[in-house]
UniProtKB/TrEMBL annotation:
This is F-box protein 48. Residues 32-80 form the F-box domain. Pfam families: F-box-like (PF12937). Signal peptide: none annotated. It comes from the Eukaryota. It comes from Microcebus murinus (Gray mouse lemur). InterPro entries: F-box-like_dom_sf (IPR036047), F-box_dom (IPR001810).
Length: 156
């Protein structure tokens, strides 16, 4: 019985030590988190220089970064969405007319734009049959999109 009480005391003591270490760590992280220290406008301006991959990675850093990035639709997501609009203007415009936010529109059209860009740039011009297509190159696209791709292939 004395062993149990000794273990409980040790875990309680180490629990207190761990809690104080965790509190110090959280305080230190909070002091180093520019999102919590700077005005929102400045924070958004900092995030606005990131490319799409970096912006998506920044979403995963911590809750405060996630909240700012996710909720800055027109400041952060609109410019990214306009980049892919160059490849998928009809799709982007239709989503926006349907009331989707810039972020959701980007999520809905990102992979489609990547695949369409690869097709339009001639990456798959040398493929003779559907068996030769890499799986990732096939993305559900509507007839109009495939028509645009076919026209580009015929012009080559």
């Amino acid at each position: 019985m004395p062993k149990n009480s000794k273990k409980n005391n040790n875990s309680r003591v180490s629990g207190i030590e761990l809690n104080s270490v965790d509190a110090k760590k959280k305080k230190h992280e909070s002091q180093n988190n520019f999102v919590e220290m700077l005005p929102r406008e400045i924070t958004i301006q900092i995030f606005s220089v990131l490319d799409l991959g970096s912006l998506c990675t920044a979403l995963l850093v911590c809750k405060s970064w996630y909240d700012v990035i996710k909720n800055s639709d027109s400041c952060l997501w609109k410019p990214q969405c306009l980049i892919i609009r160059a490849v998928c203007p009809r799709d982007i415009d239709n989503d926006l007319k349907s009331g989707f936010s810039w972020r959701v529109t980007l999520e809905r059209n990102y992979w489609k734009s990547k695949v369409k860009h690869e097709w339009l740039s001639g990456k798959y011009s040398n493929i003779c049959s559907s068996i030769s297509l890499p799986e990732k190159s096939m993305y559900p696209m509507d007839a109009d999109t495939w028509g645009e791709i076919l026209e580009a292939e015929l012009e080559r």
